[in-house]
Amino acid sequence: MTSETVFYQRRRLLKGLGGMGIGMAAFSTASCVRQSKTGDPSELAATFKTSRLEAERNTRYTVNRSATPQDLAAGYNNFYEFGGNKQIWKAAQKLPLNDWQVEVTGQVNNPRTYNVDDLKQRFPLEERIYRFRCVEAWAMVVPWVGFPMRALLKEVEPKATAKFVRFTSFYDPAVCPGPGFLPGSLPWPYTEGLSIAEMANELAFFAVGIYGRELPKQHGAPLRMVLPWKYGFKGAKSIVKIEFLDQQPATFWNSLSPNEYGFTANVDPKVPHPRWSQSQERLLGTGSNSYAWEKQPTLPYNGYEEYVGKLYS
Ligand SMILES: Nc1nc2c(c(=O)[nH]1)N[C@H]1C(S)=C(S)[C@@H](COP(=O)(O)O)O[C@H]1N2
Ligand SMILES: [Mo]
Predict the structure, then answer these.
(1) Which residue of 11, 14, 184, 308 is 20 to 30 Å from 67, comparing CA positions?
(2) Is residue 295 part of a domain?
(3) pLDDT at position 182, please?
(4) CB of 237 closer than 6 A to ligand 1?
(5) Please, which residues have CB within 8 angstroms of residue 84's CB and are 6 or more apart in sequence?
(6) 193 within domain boundaries
């Protein structure tokens, strides 16, 4: 076989897999009975009883629905490094958090490596209650604790040549082998990207906590991205590197299946996923399966058009 044949076959494999990827999880929520909680509830609760991390709520951001119960949010997650199902909280406890460093590099005047505790001290923390919408159409409302991405931008000073930012998640195949199907062929580590203008938007947030406590591992401890106007996959978890670039970076889901997982990925009720409508969302809740959850119409930009609409006009 020529190297092109190998490349082509690999591409087909990846394309097919991308089609399975997040979508496979959505399909299985439709086809089998899934509880949002599995296993021992007290064992699950122990995973989110992390240290207290309280901050004053920023009242500029409000939502017109109630917060999702903490145990539902902590018991239904996407974290493909640890497996391909939603009940990933137990497997995610293997994530090693000791001495976590976040490297800021690339086209910036002040590149540096932060210890995560240093980040928490340096940038004033606030609480923000945001809507959250996964591309699979489930939605929740959670109170994050963290700091706006623009605070970091101000400190590291991107150069004029920097147009995009790539965010990289923790990856160690010995700790998180991935979902198990086709091992070795996914484009790890998980990466995501934003334009500098998006990162500078007031809504773009780094979370270090949730529900008044440090992030549980399954939510992407110790630092994850929160972009409430975009589909959830844009918000990479457990960030170890932030790179300023002059070109749009390739990202995990976008390189697997660009027509399902666009680079921009703003929530839009009028643009269906190739295999399902995005006109409605299902509020993460209790019930025998996720299709029993309360449905609501999807809002353009997930309800945040007034803050971000001008970025795209
Ligand atoms: N590193 C990493 N980040 C990730 C994911 C992932 O698999 N790996 N999944 C994404 C997806 S698809 C969603 S919907 C959210 C889920 O966040 P939650 O589990 O805290 O609700 O995390 C996003 N960030
Ligand atoms: Mo998602």
Answers:
(1) 308
(2) yes
(3) 67
(4) yes
(5) 24, 25, 179, 180, 181
(6) yes
User: What is the rounded end-to-end Cα distance, in angstroms, of the chain?
Assistant: 47
Distance 163 CA to ligand 2 centre (A): 25
User: Does the CB atom of residue 86 touch ligand 1 within 6 A?
Assistant: no
Region of 302 (left: φ > 0; alpha: ψ -120 to 50; beta: rest) is left
Domain with 81, as residue range(s), is 4-303
In a domain, 164, yes or no: yes
pLDDT at 290: 83
Q: How many domains does the chain divide into?
A: 1
**pLDDT of amino acid 260:** 95
Separation of alpha carbons 41 and 75, rounded Å? 9
Exposed, middle or buried, 31 (CB in 10 Å: 0-12/13-18/19+)? exposed
Residue 221 belongs to a domain: yes
Residue 235 near ligand 1, beta carbon < 6 Å: yes
CATH number of domain containing 163: 3.90.420.10
Q: What is the model's pTM?
A: 0.91
